[in-house]
Amino acid sequence: MMLRSTLAAALAFLAVSSGGARAETAVPEACRPIQAQGDSFTVCTVDLRRQRVRLFWLGADGQPYSSLSALAEKQGPRLSFAMNAGMYDKGQAPVGLYVEDGREMKGVSTANGPGNFHLKPNGVFYVKGERAGVLDTGHYLKARLRPDFATQSGPMLVIDGQIHPKISADGPSQKIRNGVGVRDDGRVAVFAISEHPVTFGAFARLFRDDLGCRNALFLDGSVSSLYAPALKRSDISRPLGPMVGAVAR
User: Fold this and answer.
1) What are the per-10-residue average pLDDT scores of the chain (249 residues)?
2) C-beta separation of 116 from 221 below 8 A
């Protein structure tokens, strides 16, 4: 179970309210708690016409940021929220596709294997200009997109308005989970994290039925964590690989 870092949250709050030109770059509150599917979630909604959604993995020293607090320290008050953004290996490298600032740093994986990532179809969350999308991996490859940012994870939660066929309504696996969906013709990206362990089925229904996303992708479970300074929250988890966040344009 992850812990809340009150120190990191306090530092983030001070950074936003410290005044001067730096404070003027602060972006609007993005995250809010909701009740849905009989449980509690925090949902972060980003209008890509007002903010930029981007991915983060390696810092200037070539090493993974590893934690939300380290990322927040580097990005400052322009970062309105961040969370982990897909599965990664023991070296904190992405398991599948990873694109940052238009540069493909890891290629698409179509391999079979164990675990959630390989529960086909898996998929890709991507950002191109002022639009975001979620596509299953096969359709992503056929589309031949050249995104600004992209991360591959799995399984897909919602595919064209339908729950992933291999996700049961309420299976036995319950974990703290996070994921991403899109709506409004890709102009709005919707990120969610559960506050308590939930099933895959409940998490998928959250995106389809409560958040209005026709396509949504599971990002991870157990390590799922959130940085949301407006909520005075900065979660601590095991070392992270890729992260996603919203920054001022």
Assistant:
1) 39 38 46 97 97 97 97 96 97 98 98 95 98 98 97 98 94 94 97 97 98 98 96 95 95
2) yes
The partner residues of 235 in beta bridges, in order of sequence, read 4
Name the nearest CA neighbour of 218 among 115, 99, 72: 115
Rounded to an integer, what distance in angstroms lies between the CA atom of residue 107 and that of residue 183? 26
On whether the CB atoms of residues 181 and 216 are closer than 8 A, the answer is yes
Find the length of the chain. 249
Q: Are 8 and 72 in contact (CB under 8 A)?
A: yes
